[in-house]
Amino acid sequence: MLIGIVVGIVVIIAAVFIFSPRAPEDVQQASITDSPEGSMNAENGAMVGDGDQSMIAITSFGFVGYGPGKSHTGTFNSYEITNVAVNEAGLPTSGTITFAVDSLSTDTEILTGHLTEKKEFFDSATYPTIAFTLTDITDAEAGTFQVNGDLTIKGVTKRIGFAVQGQADKTFTSEFRVDMSQFGFAAPGIVDNEVLINFSGNLF
């Protein structure tokens, strides 16, 4: 009897993990490597200076996190864009976007607090901002651009690359998976390492 109960519990737990939602594998996975020495990193996510944000705007930004038997959506409600420059083709050649961690919100109030405050997640008391500094953008094929830059989360800076889809009206969108364990996230069995990120914006 006891053995049967234990086996049943093990089977249920295994099923939860096996069939838990995860970021869809058909969505691009962002490349993550160590940032080259001497690259322009934003220390601990701090802004690198004043700049012109009139050339670019983020119109939506969201993420989806996954765990055993669940998934949750979230966003950052406060950001600032600085140090933007564009080339003759109208493509950004530099710029930094900085998110305020305390502006994070999710579909669950308790989760918002955990992600914002816990040391295994964003730990906003120690690391109040997240920053992405563009290093280069190339025209990969018609309407698709390869974007590379330095992403700083929790004091860890990595070079990250992902594709962005651009339109003739100067709008752009992107969706990609990011392995958050590369940035010090550590909650095995509670959340999946991969987070799905999606955003859209405008060039002016």
If you compute it from the alpha carbons, what radius of gyration comes out, rounded to the nearest whole angstrom? Answer: 19 Å
Note poorly predicted spans: 4-19, 40-51
CATH superfamily: Lipid/polyisoprenoid-binding, YceI-like
Task: Provide the CATH topology.
Answer: Lipocalin
CATH class: Mainly Beta
Compressed to H and E, one letter per element, the order equals HEEEEEEHEEEEE
What is the structure about, briefly put?
With 204 residues, the chain is mostly beta strands. The protein has helices at residues 2-18, 109-117, and strands at 31-34, 56-67, 70-76, 79-86, 92-100, 104-106, 129-141, 144-153, 156-166, 171-179, 194-203.
Features of this protein?
47% strand; globular; Lipocalin; 204 residues; 2 helices; mainly beta; 11-stranded antiparallel β-sheet
Detailed description of the structure:
This protein has about 200 residues and is mainly β. The chain has two helices and eleven strands. The protein has one domain: Lipocalin. Strands 1, 2, 3, 4, 5, 6, 7, 8, 9, 10 and 11 form an eleven-stranded antiparallel beta sheet that branches. The longest helix has 17 residues. The radius of gyration is 19 Å and the shape is globular.
